[in-house]
Each structure stands twice: as structure tokens, then as C-alpha cells.
TrEMBL record:
The active site is at 336 (for fru-6p isomerization activity). Homodimer. Its main location: cytoplasm. It comes from the Archaea. It is found in: Cytoplasm. This is Glutamine--fructose-6-phosphate aminotransferase [isomerizing]. It comes from Methanoculleus bourgensis (strain ATCC 43281 / DSM 3045 / OCM 15 / MS2) (Methanogenium bourgense). The chain holds residues 239 to 579 of 579 of the full protein. It catalyses: D-fructose 6-phosphate + L-glutamine = D-glucosamine 6-phosphate + L-glutamate. The lineage of its organism: Archaea, Methanobacteriati, Methanobacteriota, Stenosarchaea group, Methanomicrobia.
Length: 341
């Protein structure tokens, strides 16, 4: 049933080109399209990995299409309900996460229009929300979310595309190819560093900050290496005290407005003797020279870099967990869906 893979998680990582492509191909129906086009403000609610996709959406939608977006954690929302207007979107691959559903019910009670983005047709969230945008990831067995995460991004990136007058049609219809290109990456050197560490940092800026948070979540949940996802500029406001030669920092540094400030952050980390594993674009020799391990991702559009960087971080967590002989598909103390608040 694992299709020749050692674990479901690896199988599911490898299914991502297809699940991403299928989710893009399924598109957005007219009803959902109208909801999205009519919304002045969008609030998203989610938990865990799904929350990270909503943060990525916020960065992309605000910077690329100038819409006002709020991303809220389901578990907090219920107790500290923000002022709500417009469209509220619950993002939950299982469709059963209690905190996310409770938040959506509260939004409904406040007369917001509600949309569910989920992988499971007929799940509880689909019965609560006014409409559903279904991801096409197929069943995900591994507790760690992988293909459901990128399928959520496929759904959310389509919303960005819609609000940007379909400026990214071409990018999105080819993104699965770039995901396929990174699946066989050799991340052994980075794995060797992480598997010896007790603590690691994952850092990025802009949309790569939640990508880093997700990389850290994957690392800690399946390898049990303590990992923190941080906005790169925040490390010097406290966490620098934790940097040692035994504390790897995984930094995502791709071309764009934050490239040079990221590069100087990396130099500051190196000056504190932390080994740096950098994800940068293919051919970035300057970056490769200042870090300990350089992992090149394809030099493509921002939307695609978000996907490929995420997949590389999934591989890093997966192989680290394998080296440490963890129960990759069923990490301790965790359940696939959290149905209590
Ligand atoms: O089913 P959901 O997307 O609502 O689940 C939310 C989280 O429990 C989930 O994303 C969790 O963080 C991941 N399985 C971690 O890999």
C-alpha cells in the first residue's frame, strides 16, 4: 500500500506534483468565484500546518493583489473573536478540526459569508460553511501533512490568481513540474547536521517566514529535534543567545526585496558560529559562498519558490527522522485530526 516507499509520508511527498496539479485543474466554481470576487476583506481560520498555509496566503494576497487579509488560529479565535466582516474561510484538510469548525460557526453567527477549503467531501466543515472549495490531494495517511499542505496552497494560490485577474495562470499550471524537480534532491549533508542537533532554527522573510514555520513544525513533529520557525529579522531580538556551533539555522533566501537583508542576517548568524543551511536559487554563488550548506531550488516565480522550498523542507524533516529512526508515519502523542477543542 505504500507503493514501494518506506513510509506513507515519503509516498505522499512524491504525490505532490499530481495532487497540486489536480487541485489547480479542478478550478473554482462560479458560486465560490463570486464569493471571492465580492469580498472586501478576507479572514482565514485554521490550525497547525493549515494555519501556515493561511499565513502564506496573507503574504501573497496582500503583496500581489492588495487585498486585506487576516489569518487567525482556530484555537485562539474562539476566545478572542476579532471584528469580522466579509468572507471567512476555514482551511482544514480533514474538515474535522474542532477549533477551526467552532471558529467558522462563530463567523456564521456574525453573518459573514463562509467558505471551507478541505480535502474531504462531506466532512463536518462542508456542512457548516456556505460553500466548499475542494482540494484534490486524495487520502493522506501519514500524520504529518505534506500533500494536503501543497494542495491547500494550490487552492489558496488560485484565489490569489483570481483576485489578480488571472495573472498567474501560466505559473500555476506549470508549478507541479518544479515540485517534481526537487523530489529527488540529495539533502544528506543538511540531514547530517540536523540529526546531530538538539535545536534548530528555520528562518525566512515575507511568505518564506510561514514556509520556515512549517519546515520547523515538520522537523519537530517527526524527528523530535526541537525546531523554531522565526522571521529572520527577529533572531537578533533574543534567540541569538541560543546560537552555537551545534544549532543549525535553515535559512530561505531567494531573490526579491528582502534578499540583501537576509544575506546580512545570515552573516550575523555565521558570526555567532551557527552552521547555516541555505535554500537559495540555483546559481546563486554569492549565497553559496557564505553558508555551510547550499541547497539550490529552481529559479522561478515566487509562488513556485514557496512550493519548492516547502517540499525541500519536508524532505529534510523526513530524512532526519529516518536517520534518527523515528516512527515517521505515526509520531508520538499526535493524531491525524484533532476533534476536541
Ligand atoms: O485537518 P486540519 O488541516 O484542520 O488539521 C490541522 C492540524 O492538526 C494539522 O495541520 C497538523 O498541524 C498537521 N498534521 C501537522 O503535520
Amino acid at each position: 500500500r505504500k507503493g514501494g516507499f518506506d513510509h506513507y509520508m515519503l509516498k505522499e511527498i512524491f504525490e505532490q506534483p499530481q495532487s497540486f496539479y489536480e487541485t489547480i485543474r479542478a478550478g473554482i466554481d462560479d458560486n465560490v468565484r463570486q464569493m471571492i470576487m465580492g469580498a472586501d476583506e478576507i479572514t482565514l481560520v485554521a490550525c497547525g500546518t493549515s494555519y501556515h498555509t493561511t499565513l502564506i496566503f496573507k503574504y501573497l494576497a496582500e503583496s500581489l493583489c492588495n487585498i486585506s487579509v487576516r489569518a487567525e488560529m482556530g484555537s485562539e479565535f474562539k476566545y478572542f473573536v476579532p471584528p469580522l466582516r466579509g468572507l471567512v474561510i476555514a482551511v482544514t484538510q480533514s474538515g474535522e478540526t474542532a477549533d477551526t469548525i467552532a471558529a467558522l460557526k462563530m463567523a456564521k453567527a456574525r453573518n459573514c459569508s463562509t467558505l471551507a477549503i478541505t480535502n474531504v467531501q462531506g466532512s463536518t466543515v462542508t456542512r457548516v460553511a456556505d460553500s466548499t472549495l475542494l482540494m484534490r490531494a486524495g487520502p493522506e495517511i501519514g500524520v504529518a501533512a505534506t500533500k494536503s499542505y501543497t494542495a491547500q496552497l494550490a487552492a489558496l494560490m488560485q484565489i490569489v490568481n483570481l483576485r489578480c485577474e488571472r495573472a498567474f495562470d501560466d505559473v500555476l499550471s506549470h508549478a507541479h513540474l518544479a515540485i517534481g524537480d526537487v523530489l529527488l534532491y540529495d539533502v544528506r549533508d543538511a540531514v547530517a547536521l540536523c540529526s546531530k542537533a538538539d535545536h534548530a532554527f528555520f528562518v525566512g522573510r515575507g511568505a518564506f517566514y510561514p514556509v520556515a514555520m512549517e519546515g520547523a513544525l515538520k522537523m519537530k513533529e517527526i524527528s523530535y529535534v526541537h525546531a523554531e520557525g522565526y522571521a529572520a529579522g527577529e533572531l537578533k531580538h533574543g534567540p541569538f543567545a541560543l546560537l552555537t556551533p551545534e544549532t543549525p539555522v535553515v535559512a530561505i533566501c531567494t531573490p526579491g526585496p528582502t534578499y540583501s537583508v537576509m544575506a546580512s542576517n545570515i552573516k550575523e548568524m555565521k558570526a555567532r558560529r551557527a552552521p547555516v543551511i541555505a535554500l537559495g536559487v540555483d546559481g546563486d554563488k554569492e549565497l553559496a559562498e557564505i553558508v555551510d550548506i547550499f541547497i539550490p531550488i529552481p529559479n522561478t516565480h515566487l509562488l513556485v519558490q514557496v512550493l519548492t522550498a516547502s517540499v525541500v523542507l519536508q524532505l529534510l524533516a523526513y530524512h532526519t527522522a529516518c536517520v534518527l529512526q523515528r516512527d515517521v508515519d505515526k509520531p508520538r502523542n499526535l493524531a491525524k485530526s484533532v476533534t476536541v477543542e
